[in-house]
Write a structure and sequence with these properties.
122 residues; alpha/beta; five-stranded parallel beta sheet; 5 strands
């Protein structure tokens, strides 16, 4: 059985230009507040009430992660949402699931580069 891999920010930063799919699962208000990691795909999982639409989210996810063997990195604020989502995806048979350890909070604490959301979405 596979397990979710914790990736330190310095490792994720090296993967930005390597065609590794990075999926930021936070909400738009969070993207505006902190910016986003360059080349990350933005697919909100939980809304502001903690609700989600798994079928809709999986439809978007499967456009990016096209095989269960493909490597991808999940990103959220503190790595709590990504831990839950990643473990769910592993249960669905995905083999190479990782997430940003410490989330965007640690990314920012380490002063790593982000792209403003208002510019990013153009």
């Amino acid at each position: 059985m596979n397990k979710l891999v914790d990736l330190q920010p310095r490792i994720v930063e090296k993967m930005i230009n390597d065609n590794i799919v990075m999926i930021d699962v936070r909400r738009p208000d969070e993207w505006v507040r902190t910016g986003v990691i360059k080349n990350a795909h933005l697919i909100t999982f939980f809304d502001e009430f903690g609700d989600y639409d798994i079928e809709k989210w999986m439809a978007e996810f499967e456009k990016l992660v096209t095989t269960k063997e493909q490597t991808f990195v999940l990103i959220c604020a503190h790595a709590n949402r990504t831990r839950n989502i990643g473990n769910f995806l592993i249960e669905q048979g995905y083999k190479n699931c990782a997430h940003l350890f410490g989330g965007m909070a640690l990314w920012q604490q380490e002063q790593r580069e982000t792209v403003p959301y208002k510019l990013f979405k153009n």
